[in-house]
Amino acid sequence: MGTYVYRALKASCAYKDDISELSDLRSIEFDLHQTIDYCKIFMTLVNTHAPQWPNIPHDDRSQVVYMALVPIQEAAVVRYIRANKGGARRNLPKEIIAGLSARDNELHNFIVDLRDKHIAHCVSAAETYFLKLYFLKEDPQDTDHWSIGWGGNKHMSLGPDFMAGLSNLATLVRERLLEVIKIKDNSLLSRLKHHTLGDVSYDEPGHRLQPLEVLLRTRRPG
Fold it and tell me: Which residue has the higher pLDDT, 62 or 108?
């Protein structure tokens, strides 16, 4: 048994479309994996620091824990929807979502709406603000003591039950995606074996990562 080393496959080789597709699918799988990780972190924090959920005390420590839970939930939702939205990257294979049970599909659609209409954009009644007029109860018409202020309602967190459901759904979708990736990996590998190493790979292990500010201005290859 020897020592394994690797080289990056050439994006310009005869199988560039296959390589591009597998690259996208692996990127999607990573998003789903992170969704599951965020859900685990959320549940750990709740079980350790907020076991009385949803009755969060109003002391400073409990409020800090609560405010830490909100972005973790939002990160999990965003990562899950990234895996299901196309663009420069390919979409999740349609047959994976199409094969969900009615219950899982209902949760999937709810998560899409949650991200699109509440987390990424404020386009739903889940977040509303309104003006309030303050006045003296004893003399409502005493305008010298009138003042205005803002009130608001916003759903901040859906709690452990939702996150457990999201984790289960992301796990199911990821497992199905890994099955697709395995089939495509094996198919590509069997065809690559008909070529020499130099035909299909670079002479060095991989690409150097450029600074983030450069990458953000560069369209994803595909």
Answer: 108
